[in-house]
Amino acid sequence: MENNTDSKSKDTKKKVGIKQWIYAILACLLCVLFVFWTGYWIVLILIPVFIDIYITKFIPWGAWRNVQNPFLRKVLDWVDAILFALVGVWIINTFFFQNYQIPSSSLEKSLLVGDFLCVSKVSYGARSPMTPFSLPLMQHTFPAFGFKSYLEKPQLDYKRFTGTGHIERNDIVVFNYPSGDTVATNMQDQDYYVLCKDAERMGGRSYLWSNKQIYGDIVYRPVDRRENYVKRCIGLPGETIELRNDTTFINGTAIGDPENMQQSYIVQTDGTMIDPKIFGDLGISNEDQAKISAEDISKADSSVVAELGLKYKNNNAGVLYKTVFLTKQKKAELEKRPFISTIIKQSEYLNKLYKMENETYIPIIYPITYDQPCGFGDFPKLWIPKRGETIKFDTDIEYKVAAYSRCIKNYEHNDFEYKGGKVFINGQQADSYTFKFDYYFMMGDNRDNSADSRVWGFVPEDHIVGKPLFIWLSLDKDKGWFEGKIRWNRLFTSGNKK
To answer: Would 232 be classed as within a structural domain?
Structure first.
């Protein structure tokens, strides 16, 4: 009797329906397609696993479902579901799509703080996992507990799979923050290298490392565990970029501005104080309104007022509002108000002010280790490295070392030294260097309120994450749930607004 029962159970076990055959074929086909796409031939080992799960069933993959203890069976059921979900999320996030939330106003008004983006990794080609052992949905830190959400080793070499396209000018791109390789844990929202620059008089890098109570631990992060940033690609590999009076030039030719680009303006009124509601109606967020300052210049000297490009009416220069962020369209709307005397770009105002006071402006711009005078709204000519192209260390050596040593050393992993006026790469004196990566120059649409390539330099190709496809949710942090918090008009609109 027992033999007959065992025989029947085995027959039942081996009985396979058409549905199982379809599942097995689909699983194997997807596995083969994935291998052709990525070149990961070892993944083919999953094919016999799929065949056994659905067809042969030699291994009792679902034996835990037969556990007699109902509590234990329920726990195992949950464990199975959670593991399946985590693996699924990891695969989707790594190779196909990822969610990204806009945290800052650097791309206003193209993308707004509170926009949730669906980012395609297929558009430019997904990267192979560089830090394979990491928790899904966590970039670098476990929430609340503060410890790392990944294992630093092993680190795999960079490889990018075939994508549906490539980065073009004016594409909005999500990427890992290049200067995020080193982070002061107490000031994670600030650029480590700018912090070193600011602390130069006190010892720079050594000052930061010796003051843990202020800066915290100084930690290194692998490429794919660095903070995600989103900016607009303005300069492509092999091009020369320059800004003059807020106009961008590529290879000497001026290019158009993004449609929703906004800048900082000086707004002069006839003495009327501007109601904050007006700023709100212009789409200026509460955060940006907090940066606006008002100055009474009614008794200012008329010649000084004229020299600054302002107006003087009825022996009254009125009130000056500084750091007002506006698009061209919103600027035109504000100019129609009867109490507005004039609106000028803040960069023009500051250039005139510095000239009038005979001061030289030396901003913190890339390369930040090379001080160079520069007007407000300007950025000196800079060549963007391109894979396979060579730079020669024959002229302007100090500038080239400042501009490209980070690419050669930090991104392309060579030993780099500059001593006695000579360049040494991997221990050998070098008169030139041929780049291994393509690099990109990224800028925010909120041009006067964006930390971008003008400060921290190039974005290497291995830092590129993906392309925003669409906005699937948008929340206005300045409004309540019953006051229009959800921006319904932005839902499922393009995440790559030109």
So the answer is: no
pTM of the full structure: 0.89
Q: Is residue 411 part of a domain?
A: no
117, 469 in Cβ contact below 8 A? yes
Using CA atoms, how far apart are residues 246 and 386, in angstroms rounded to an integer?
25
Residue pLDDT, tens place only, 283-308: 898 889 999 999 999 888 888 888 99
Rounded CA-CA distance 115/135 in Å is 24
* Domain enclosing residue 30, as ranges: 2-91
Task: For the beta carbon of residue 460, count every other beta carbon within 10 angstroms.
Answer: 24
Nearest to 353 by CA among 327, 322, 328: 322
Each residue's pLDDT tens digit, 209-218:
989 899 999 9
Cα–Cα nearest to 458, from 395, 410, 390, 415: 410
The neighbouring-strand residues paired with 4 are: none
Distances (CA, A) of 166 to 124, 258, 457: 5, 19, 20
Q: In what order do the strands lie in the sheet with 422-425?
A: 416-419, 422-425, 428-430
Percent of the chain exceeding pLDDT 90 equals 57
Of 66, 91, 116, at which residue does a domain stop?
91
Where is the domain boundary, 338, 361, 380? 380
Cβ-contact 290, 263 below 8 angstroms: no
As for how many domains the chain has, the answer is 2
